[in-house]
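Give me the fold.
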Amino acid sequence: MSDFFNEALWEKAWKDHGDTVVNMMKKAGIEPATAFDNKAKTFNDQSFNEEGRARTRRIINWLEGQGVQLDNASVLDIGAASGVFTVPFAERGARVTAIESSLPQIELLQDNIAKFADDQVRIVPERFEDIDVLARGWNHAYDLVFVSMCPVILDWESVEKVLNCAQEFCYISMLAGSTEHSLMNEIWPLVTGKPFNKNHMEFGYLLHLLYLKGYSYQSLITRETKTSELSNEAAMQEMMSILSIHGHPADDHIRTTVADYLEKTYPSGKVTVQQSGRYGKVLIRLQDQKMYTIL
């Protein structure tokens, strides 16, 4: 039981955890920072359609319900993509520094923030991992540091770097379990001869270390689902990418197996895919709170 309260042990366990999304992508030869370049336009469309805007509003409403005030706040949005949160933050009056290293995402971000004053949103076209926080003057510089589903969170050391930028609040969201992909569940047994096993992800390390290190925080885990329709060609590309990330790079046998299955199972050429997963969100408070209010 004493190990349960051993900070160093939990830090090491997280650093040594092999089945992180980032580790699996790198083992497959995929650079996380550019992995979604070819999907930037699709991601942007999904982020700013009615469903995407509703999802963003739910998260921002939760933040505001916990006391985060965005009007005239300074926000550091790490992994801003095309501005899925940068834009609504600025619309609520925040001054946003948006960090994004993907060129296709940056181009879309520039278009999406064109309506704001020049000094309201600043794009930093770099990887956060390469930035010297102290040299930039970012130490405790931002009212809110926001990291949503960004591969910059690798271990406790990376969390500390993010926390060092925040003055009042820090928001981090991560996968809280393996994503479920209906087409993956169909094809995985054909390729491996076994059902697809779900993995626990790193969010548990984050919460437990925040607890052990004495931080004040609110956490939320949601289960979210989306349904999309892909062409057989797009479904083929997606499955090759997912299989590669999970240690099965495409060869002639795998390509033939997947292609034959798609042709026989979806003769219309349209593949309906359902994706779902548990997503963990945590808002960390960095300023002391008064326990009682005297009226």
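The beta strands are 74-78, 95-99, 121-124, 142-148, 166-175, 180-181, 216-231, 270-285.
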